[in-house]
Specification:
Elements (H helix, E strand, L loop, with lengths): L2 E9 L2 E8 L10 E2 L3 E9 L1 E5 L2 E5 L4 E4 L4 E5 L6 E8 L1 H10 L12 E2 L3 H12 L5 H21 L9 H17 L9 H8 L3 H12 L3 H19 L4 H7 L5 H12 L3 H6 L2
Antiparallel strand pairs: 1-2, 2-9, 3-8, 4-7, 4-9, 5-6, 5-8, 7-10
């Protein structure tokens, strides 16, 4: 197993790293400790995260939440590797940040993660296309991400019953399949197809997928397609129609509508926004 952590930017009390892990099912998880308040945006792969706040399957678009001084484990029981953008805050910096965020009730996270969702989609797509930004820009992003995480954590309710290991494996495999195939125009990835692949009825697969990922399979497929499209809008000068097609859409108006639903603005406005 190798873990590559590259610092992208750092300042007084904060640090941003790109963390790439190639661990797999044969690598034993071991206990670690958060040396700072940590928020990690999952950009690729899946892994299991266990901490005092609970356990969660982390998929692209989710946030890992780590409290300073708390022990944790990350495992790759159902697939190889992941990539995260990890934001770290010293306790003093974090306390000042929390005090300034309207509506923030406490400085410790009650949950292990924030599932993928619209409030994060636009920010994470921007992060993916601007990892080499200057330090002031990344510090602004770190503060924005922290506020989103605090509000999301405060509004979440703990799940009463953890999923089975087999359920986690099935959903993890489905997430990885969506990651690699969602943008292919000839792949529908219907609920029935994904459920058959997992060996479950559509109803049961839908229930456990939504429980673990935080949204339905269809919503996650849309989220994945729009993330890839948003990154290409910022990184290339390709026609929007070409990007739409490569994201799995044959109709530009449908693509524009879906992009606005997930990212919060239309593709042209997103491309030109700073």
């Amino acid at each position: 197993m190798t873990l590559d952590a590259r610092t992208l930017a750092a300042g007084d009390g904060w640090r941003v790293q790109e963390v790439i892990c190639n661990a797999g099912p044969r690598d034993r998880a071991f206990e670690e400790q958060h040396g700072s308040v940590s928020i990690a945006a999952v950009m690729g792969g899946t892994f299991q995260y266990r901490t005092a706040q609970g356990s969660a399957l982390l998929a692209p678009g989710a946030l890992l939440l780590g409290n300073h001084g708390r022990c944790f484990e990350c495992g790759h029981e159902h697939g190889v590797g992941d990539r995260c953008l990890s934001f770290h805050f010293t306790p003093a910096y974090w306390e000042n940040l929390v005090a300034a965020v309207p509506g923030a009730r406490k400085a410790t996270f009650a949950n292990a993660h924030v599932p993928p969702g619209r409030p994060l989609a636009r920010l994470l797509a921007s992060l993916e296309s601007a990892r080499e930004s200057d330090a002031p820009s990344l510090e602004e992003t770190a503060n924005t991400l922290a506020a989103i995480a605090l509000h999301a954590d405060a509004g979440m309710h703990s799940q009463p019953r953890p999923p089975s290991r087999q359920d986690v494996q099935r959903v993890s495999e489905a997430v990885r399949r969506i990651e690699t195939q969602a943008h292919q125009a000839d792949r529908t990835l219907s609920l029935g197809e994904l459920a058959r692949e997992a060996g479950l009825s559509p109803w049961h697969f839908l229930r456990i997928f939504r429980h673990l990922v935080g949204m339905t399979p269809h919503q996650y497929i849309l989220h994945t397609r729009m993330h890839h499209a948003a990154v290409r809008l910022r990184q290339s000068s390709d026609l929007i129609s070409d990007i739409a097609f490569k994201a799995g859409f044959n109709d530009l108006s449908t693509f524009n509508h879906r992009f606005r639903t997930v990212i919060g603005t239309n593709p042209s406005a997103y491309r030109t926004a700073k």
